Amino acid sequence: MKQFLIYCFILIGVSSHAQADLDKLLARYNSQTVPYISVEELKMQSKDTNLVILDAREPKEFKVSHIKSAVYAGFSQFSVTIISHLINDKSRPVVVYCSLGIRSETISEKLKKEGYSNVSNLYGGIFEWKNKGYSVYNEFDEPTERVHVFAKRWAKYLKNGEKIF
């Protein structure tokens, strides 16, 4: 029992350290002009057919893996015009994600500037989604362990899954 408790304290310590690192990273790069949604909240809401999940990564990242039912929005080629054809009700709930939540804030801000009023940024992005044990899917809609990490410096934030560069 004592060993089990020690293991639990170590696990909690490592987990809270990783969370603190992510908190610092997002505080450094994001202005937090868009509210975050946790992966747990998104998982609970993902069955809502009115919810739109947008993937704000590059095409090669999306092909490797994405959250089920996510729509590719892109980052460098993002177009509000294209998204407006998909989401014509600007009050519809939209969750935007990327690898960690940095690029998705930029895309979320663009949506807000265009009048979308119910936009959230996925805290920790697809990395946090996968780290929590939730499934991701490849371009053929098959479950996969692979996650594109965008760049080597971000790879350390993916703790669960196969890192693809």
TrEMBL record:
Gene3D superfamilies per the UniProt record, alphabetical: Rhodanese-like domain
UniProt protein name: Rhodanese-related sulfurtransferase
KW Cytoplasm (keyword) present: no
Short name of any one Pfam family annotated for the protein: Rhodanese
Provenance organism: Salegentibacter echinorum
Signal sequence interval, chain numbering: 1-20
Keyword field contains Signal: yes
Top-level lineage group: Bacteria
One function term, GO molecular function aspect: transferase activity
Record-linked InterPro entries: GlpE_sulfurtransferase, Rhodanese-like_dom, Rhodanese-like_dom_sf
Keywords in alphabetical order: Signal, Transferase
Segments forming domain Rhodanese: 47-138
